[in-house]
């Protein structure tokens, strides 16, 4: 049911690191979060691309605002009792914008956010043509983010997109610099081989996040292999979104072509299954309880 977000979700996520690698399915709204939680996800990743694509029907090029992203984060954190890490793009601006980003995202109930060192407007991390800001400017953003945390366990994850802009060695140097300025974890984006992932593990001694997206620069690598390489988190930002979109398109096509949804009934969640996922009966039970209490003398 809708409820206040968990207390100290960052602490819970850090505890999960001690139990093994944490797979984090990508979600983009509250119902996708409930679905992932119902299937046993230990933690979730709120995808900036997913939110932008779903909310605006637009590409992930820094069009979504802080209020829109933090609003979606709040909906997700009210829907599930799981730690949620969120994309925060470039912090929606410079250092003072990062301050407000941390305040709003923490208020939403998140376990943490990741900030990237791309020039704004950013591009998908697996596309060519990216640009990165100077390392010292990103370090300043990290300092601002760390200083703005109310809960010390709230994670500030520094993402570097420098691998395909400045080269692997420069990306590793950036990772070390970001850790030195307070980053709680490192997210190396757009890596192409397992050896590159291993290089980041050797370079820093903080938790590492791997992006196991599809159709990008990174080959498909299983969670177990990332665990062997010493990573703590693996995100799947758009996996469910892409599956969902293909199913939606097929459904709309058949509906428009045939004038009936009959051929899709066996591929749907039933009304009862949907109600079970959103805990409809619990809402009704609470309504009855509150009504009965209100009538007591």
Secondary-structure map with pairings?
Elements: H1 9-17, E1 22-27, H2 30-38, E2 44-46, H3 48-56, H4 66-79, E3 84-87, H5 95-108, E4 112-116, H6 135-148, E5 155-160, H7 168-180, E6 185-188, H8 194-203, E7 209-211, H9 223-228, E8 233-236, H10 239-258, H11 271-277, H12 280-294
Helix pairs in contact: 2-4, 4-5, 5-6, 7-8
Question: Can you describe what's shown?
Answer:
The chain has 297 residues and is of the alpha/beta class. It has 2 domains: 236 residues, Phosphoenolpyruvate-binding domains (TIM Barrel, Alpha-Beta Barrel); 37 residues. The chain is built from 12 helices and 8 strands. It has an 8-stranded parallel beta sheet, with helices on both faces. Helix 2 packs parallel to helix 4, helix 5 crosses helix 6 and helix 7 packs parallel to helix 8. The protein is globular and about 65 Å long. The mean pLDDT is 96.
Q: What is the topology, as strand order, of the major beta sheet?
A: 6-5-4-3-2-1-8-7
Structural shape = globular
Strand residue percentage: 5-15%
The H-and-E topology, N to C, reads as: HEHEHHEHEHEHEHEHEHHH
Oligomer: single chain
Number-wise, the strands total 8
Separation of the first and last Cα atoms: 29 Å
Number of helices: 12
In the residues, how many domains can be counted? 2
CATH architecture of the largest domain: Alpha-Beta Barrel
Radius of gyration: 20 Å
CATH topology of the largest domain, anyone? TIM Barrel
* The CATH fourth-level homologous superfamily of the largest domain: Phosphoenolpyruvate-binding domains
- Poorly predicted runs are none
Q: How much helicity do the residues have? A: 40-55%
- What do the pLDDT scores average to? 96
The main pleated sheet reads as: 8 strands, parallel
Query: Which secondary-structure class do the elements indicate?
Result: alpha/beta
């Amino acid at each position: 049911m809708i409820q206040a977000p968990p207390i100290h979700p960052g602490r819970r996520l850090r505890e999960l690191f001690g139990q093994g690698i944490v797979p984090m399915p990508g979600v983009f709204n509250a119902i996708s979060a409930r679905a992932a939680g119902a299937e046993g996800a230990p933690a979730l990743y709120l995808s900036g691309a997913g939110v932008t694509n779903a909310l605006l029907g637009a590409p992930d090029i820094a069009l979504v605002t802080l209020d829109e992203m933090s609003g979606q984060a709040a909906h997700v954190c009210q829907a599930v009792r799981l730690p949620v890490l969120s994309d925060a793009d470039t912090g929606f601006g410079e250092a003072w914008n990062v301050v407000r980003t941390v305040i709003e995202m923490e208020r939403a109930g998140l376990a943490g956010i990741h900030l990237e060192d791309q020039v704004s407007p950013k591009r998908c991390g697996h596309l060519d043509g990216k640009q990165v800001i100077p390392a010292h400017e990103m370090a300043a953003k990290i300092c601002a983010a760390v200083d703005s945390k109310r809960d010390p366990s709230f994670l500030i994850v520094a993402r570097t997109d420098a691998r395909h802009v400045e080269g692997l060695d420069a990306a590793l140097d950036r990772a070390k610099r970001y850790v030195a300025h307070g980053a709680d974890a490192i997210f190396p984006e757009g890596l192409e081989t397992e050896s590159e992932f291993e290089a980041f593990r050797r370079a820093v001694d903080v938790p590492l996040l791997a992006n196991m997206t599809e159709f990008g620069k990174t080959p498909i690598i299983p969670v177990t292999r990332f665990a062997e390489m010493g990573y703590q988190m693996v995100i799947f930002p758009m996996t469910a979104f892409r599956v969902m979109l293909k199913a939606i398109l097929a459904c709309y096509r058949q509906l428009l072509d045939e004038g009936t949804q009959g051929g899709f009934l066996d591929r749907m969640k039933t009304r009862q299954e949907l109600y079970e996922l959103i805990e409809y009966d619990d809402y009704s039970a609470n309504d009855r309880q509150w009504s009965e209490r209100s009538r007591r003398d």
